[in-house]
Amino acid sequence: MKRNQENTTAAALRRSLIREAAGVLPNGCHRHDEHDLQTCCMTWLRYAHRQLDRVTFAVPNGGRRDAATAGKLRAEGVKAGVSDIIMLLRTEHYGALCIEMKTDIGRQSPAQRQWQRDVEAAGMKYVVCRSLDDFKAAVEEYVADKTQEKNHKPNT
Predict the structure, then answer these.
(1) pTM score
(2) What is the pLDDT of residues 107-117, one digit of tens each?
(3) Taking Cα atoms as reference points, which of 16, 36, 25 lies closest to residue 130?
(4) Chain centre distance of CA 14
């Protein structure tokens, strides 16, 4: 029975990726819900840039927690304001890509603005994405910078 459930889940994921490839957004990809938007963007990334999936991750920084859990997470090094998604890929111009997901009406918190200043000063690229199109453009632009670096041959 458990094997059947696993097969059904895998089949559902494949169907979702096929729909994504055809340009059909997964069910629940809404710009007014940050979780749904981020899920949609990461689904696209897994399909469009499989090689980047291994170096791109979400930072579970948000959400409501009880005081004990919040204290444990702070002790482990969780920091307020960290980007929702981080891609560890060096390009010619940047050390990594930090992506903050926001809805149409969402605004950066003071801690998020400070994180942006800190990572930009450290040589990282920081973007705010409000839609799947924003996310695609940011990733494609960033990957293009990596491709330029790869194709750049120094004069000898």
Answers:
(1) 0.75
(2) 999 999 999 99
(3) 36
(4) 20
